[in-house]
Amino acid sequence: MRSFIALSLALAVVSGADAAPTLEIVPEEILVAPGDTAQFEVRLVDATQLSGFYLELGLTPEPEATGSVGFLSAFGHDDPQYCFHGFNDLFQGMVIDDDLLAVGDMTSPPDIEVTTTAGVNDLLAIIEVETSLDAWGAFEVTIDAAALELFDQYGDDIPDFAQTVIGGATIIVPEPGLALLLALGALLARRRAGIGQ
User: Fold this and answer.
1) Are strands 137-143 and 52-61 parallel, antiparallel or unpaired?
2) Burial of 138 by CB count in 10 Å (0-12 exposed, 13-18 middle, 19+ buried)?
3) pLDDT score of 18
4) Which of 20, 23, 80, 161 is deepest in the core (most CB within 10 A)?
5) In whole angstroms, what is the distance from residue 194 CA to residue 84 CA?
6) From residue 185, how far is each of 31, 65, 123 by CA, in Å?
7) Domain-embedded: residue 15
8) Is 7 within the bounds of a domain?
9) Do residues 104 and 52 lie in contact, with contact meaning Cβ atoms separated by under 8 Å?
10) In terms of residue numbers, what domain contains 64?
């Protein structure tokens, strides 16, 4: 039995070391009311020798969606879980269009490299979006794989860059009646908990 446990632990260590980087949007489903704002995070897990990154996010409405969702800003480099927290960095978040956002950073000096670990230092950016008053339906948030750059101190791709797993998310804007019910439910829950009295 002890040899089985030792073998299982050894396999876990080996498989963890060989894990491809995972770039994800958290949460995968973002619920936001019409005319309101919401935030989500872009996280990179299991990247090694990371000295800089560049990525582009896009917003695409599903065919039945109405109104619009647009990018407002990107920030997060002051967060303790930011990948380069504690180092000098050159963070830039730029809204190119309502449906296109570019985010990039690199360490300064560039010879600093980090390994990202889930829940420790895997945050790349916090993104804020805004919905129009007439918005309704689903809007897909994607990371453009062709524009993605994850590089080391020499400007070369990080190890296992070609195997990077890229996730996406969906922004859901409920019908106005449902949004009102959700807001009333939240207000009722706060009153029952004694918050805001």
Assistant:
1) antiparallel
2) middle
3) 61
4) 23
5) 40
6) 15, 25, 32
7) no
8) no
9) yes
10) 20-193
179 pLDDT band (50/70/90 cuts)?
low
Give this prediction's pTM: 0.80
Do strands 92-97 and 100-106 pair parallel, antiparallel, or not at all (unpaired)?
A: antiparallel
**Residues 125-164: tens digit of each pLDDT:** 999 999 999 999 999 999 999 999 999 999 999 999 999 9
On whether residue 81 sits in a domain, the answer given is yes
- Residue 89 phi/psi, 5-degree rounding, is -145, 170
Is 4 a member of any domain? no
Name, in order, each residue with C-beta under 8 angstroms of 130's C-beta and a sequence gap of 6 or more.
Answer: 36, 37, 69, 70, 72
Alpha-carbon distance 71 to 129, whole Å?
4
Residue 95, SS3 per DSSP? strand
Helix count and strand count (H, E) for the chain = 2, 12
CA-based end-to-end distance of the chain = 58
Q: What angle do CA 37, 41, 43 make, to 5 degrees?
A: 170
Residues in the chain: 197
77 or 80: which carries more pLDDT confidence? 80
What average pLDDT does this structure show over 64-75?
Answer: 94
Q: Is 128 exposed, middle or buried (0-12, 13-18, 19+ CB in 10 A)?
A: middle
CATH number for the domain harbouring residue 33: 2.60.40.680
Count of structural domains within the chain: 1
